[in-house]
C-alpha cells in the first residue's frame, strides 16, 4: 500500500521530471538510478539498449557510468537509444549528451 501511494504521488506531481544527471534532465526516479548504476557496475555490459530517449538524460547517465567503469574489455561499450518520436527537435536544441563527443546522430525511418 505504501509503495502504491508513493507511485501515485510520484506520477501525480510529475516528480520524475525533476531528476538531473550532470545538468541533463533524466525522467527517472533517483532510487532507480542508484540501482541502474549498481547493475551497470556489477555487469559491465558491452551494450545497453534504452527505449524512450526523450532528451537523452538516461543515455548520458549510462555513458557516464560506462566511461567511469574500468571494464577491462577491448573497445568501448555501446549505448543504443530508441525512441518513437523524431529526434531532430531534441538535437536542434542541443539537449542530447551535452559533453559526449562520440555520440552518433540518430536517423529516422518512416513506418
Automatic annotation (TrEMBL):
Molecular functions per Gene Ontology: methyltransferase activity
Cellular component, GO annotation: plasma membrane
Taxonomy, superkingdom: Eukaryota
Keyword Electron transport recorded: no
GO biological process, one term: methylation
InterPro entries the record matches: RNMT_CmcI, SAM-dependent_MTases_sf
Keywords: Methyltransferase, Transferase
Name the record gives this protein: Type II protein arginine methyltransferase
Lineage, broadest ranks: Eukaryota, Sar, Stramenopiles, Ochrophyta, Chrysophyceae
